[in-house]
Amino acid sequence: MFNMFNIIPTDTIFFDLLEKSSQNLVEISQKMQELLGNLDQSAEIVYEIGKIEEKGDQIEQETLDRLSKSFVTPLDREDIHAICKRLDDVADAIYSIADRLLLLGIREIPAEYRALLDIIDRCAQVTAEIIAYLRLKKYPEIMKGCHRLDKLQDEYRRHKRSFLQDLFRDGQDPLYALKWKDLLDVLSRAIHRIADTASILNEVSLKHG
Fold first, then answer.
1. Which domains does the chain carry?
2. 189 CB contacts (<8 Å, ≥6 apart)?
3. Who has the most CB within 10 Å: 26, 195, 197, 200?
4. Is the pTM of the predicted complex or chain greater than 0.90?
């Protein structure tokens, strides 16, 4: 059966924007890793993290603007918007953590919290790899990548449980525990948005694969 949509070119700029958004997430996550190793230079690095976060907001806005003007898109417009929004949410969470570390004057990061940030960094890199497969329509690879994200989330949960046990053990300073519990909550928002992204990408693979 003839389908007019088969001859209408889709706007592949959306693949460019999603890839830019995922690479922006990798950049901000790696900048956070740089901050962890240079807490004595936190003001300068947090400023740089803020600029990267602003770039992510601009990418999201451009995506929304183009969605409102495009007749045909390579993926469902709801999926494009949702992926871009979730990636920006993760970047926002990372910036929020960096800003709080600066405001609180933190100069020492607990080992378990560092481990959690490392997992977020690995998630960002895997997510960028998955996003790059969208343009190529490599849906089996996307599903494999989503499985890798699932395993990283399991690893995150194990480290989070260990960190919470340490925070609330007998004799722990209550103010210290509350401070890091708050920072942990912000970080957990990031992993939840990564989980959402993986779910959307998995659904995209099932719809188009």
1. 10-208 (1.20.58.220)
2. 89, 93
3. 197
4. yes
